[in-house]
């Protein structure tokens, strides 16, 4: 695939390059006549192939919950399980078939009568049931796993399709390991299964071996060599062993595939299946390139992803496309500036289109003034230029020491920089007695109105003992809400900076203190917070 026009943004954002699709299937023709793009059927196999992930097993109730959400998402087919695999899976698929309305409900079966009987038992009450039969077609699978020759396997496939057809009008046949199969033999199997009544032919890249150009070519060649494919739906099913499941699926769509089998979050056997959200959003974002569309309600994508992650107990990696926590997070200054000027500069998908409320601008040491100014405004701060410069300087200083600056951090920075606090109490000195066999004891001296006041207190640690002591001297208790201690310079004699947020009298006060001694820095920060409290009119 390559761009043959201006770089696409998305249909919602601007014009797209128009390219020749090259399809000659019946749907393409029909849709083109009515000037509509081809519909790509989304076959979700989260509950079957996705559930083959170790540890991801779902019970009946969980399968139903996900299936109902998949129906809201608008998938065309839900493969609800492999009913012959266990009595519980049979019941789970039955429950989904009986209760979930809208999508076709499919059950998987090996090319053997017993599996097909059970699959039918599972899906027969669905509004639109489908039996999905599969059998290996590569010599590797035939010789090493099934231990039979091509001809008898072909016969078995045909008999299985005919047998399934007795029960169900809609029968999908999968040529397992198609991408490693002999092409002529693959064509013969497909032709024979269509003749036997298959309504959908699936051409899986079972072991994720294919490369996009090659897989696209396979689909194109199949369409050319097997005209009967025009009478059925041609489907693809890609695995991610080389990280190419989505790329291969899209190459197939480009070359005439009409159904894509995929899973939420890309979960599935080994490295997983093609990810539904990536395929759907790629087709949507580059619709005219593919000359195709899906009927997925994309605003349900994020919710579905969260649900599957939660119920399967498989976290989504932060940089996962579309649904990862960083998919719409901008953290570098140049990008943030661009986004604030016009989101199309760095956003090809609107987060709300996949059900995420908004993009996020994460403040880090790589952020610039534009993002900082924006966040300060969001937090309600209106600063003069001079104040902003001071806040920016301290922001960079803190950001260099922290991975991310939260709104709370920023509030502390602003408070510390902008509020001049009269020193009701001035820190003078402290002494600590501490060790692993005694309760820490601190003695602190503060100065008030020129007079030294000394007191002592214990605590569950030296810093806590110092804080308790300060509270005794100022005659006021506080609750430490946030405590951040960092070295501001390098080396053994590094200067430590303590930042605290203390709840005093129902309000939060920030304090900052520096010293080469971290306990002294903490004491200075605590006194600083109390001075803000007193400066606020509290006696
Ligand atoms: C590519 C895929 O994802 S395929 C789906 C993979 N998913 C699963 O396997 C999960 C569900 N599977 C199961 O619960 C079990 O494996 C069952 C119930 C299907 C079969 O269990 P068992 O009867 O104990 O067989 P077992 O799993 O040990 O071996 C599989 C057998 O099926 C045969 N087989 C494999 N695929 C097929 C097929 N498509 N059609 C017919 N037979 C097949 C194998 O050759 C093997 O037969 P053999 O025992 O005569 O050598
Ligand atoms: C059962 C088939 C479709 C499969 O999961 C595969 O080939 O990967
Ligand atoms: Mg698979």
Automatic annotation (TrEMBL):
Keywords: Amino-acid biosynthesis, Branched-chain amino acid biosynthesis, Cytoplasm, Leucine biosynthesis, Manganese, Metal-binding, Transferase. SMART domains: LeuA_dimer. Gene3D superfamilies: 1.10.238.260, 3.30.160.270, Aldolase class I (3.20.20.70). It is an enzyme of class 2 (transferase). Transmembrane segments: none annotated. Its EC number is 2.3.3.13. Its cofactor is Mn(2+). GO terms for biological process: L-leucine biosynthetic process. It catalyses: 3-methyl-2-oxobutanoate + acetyl-CoA + H2O = (2S)-2-isopropylmalate + CoA + H(+). One of its GO terms (molecular function) is acetyl-CoA C-acetyltransferase activity. Residues 40-302 form the Pyruvate carboxyltransferase domain. Residues 426-539 are annotated as: Regulatory domain. Catalyzes the condensation of the acetyl group of acetyl-CoA with 3-methyl-2-oxobutanoate (2-ketoisovalerate) to form 3-carboxy-3-hydroxy-4-methylpentanoate (2-isopropylmalate). Belongs to the alpha-IPM synthase/homocitrate synthase family. LeuA type 1 subfamily. This is 2-isopropylmalate synthase. It comes from Desulfacinum infernum DSM 9756. The gene is leuA.
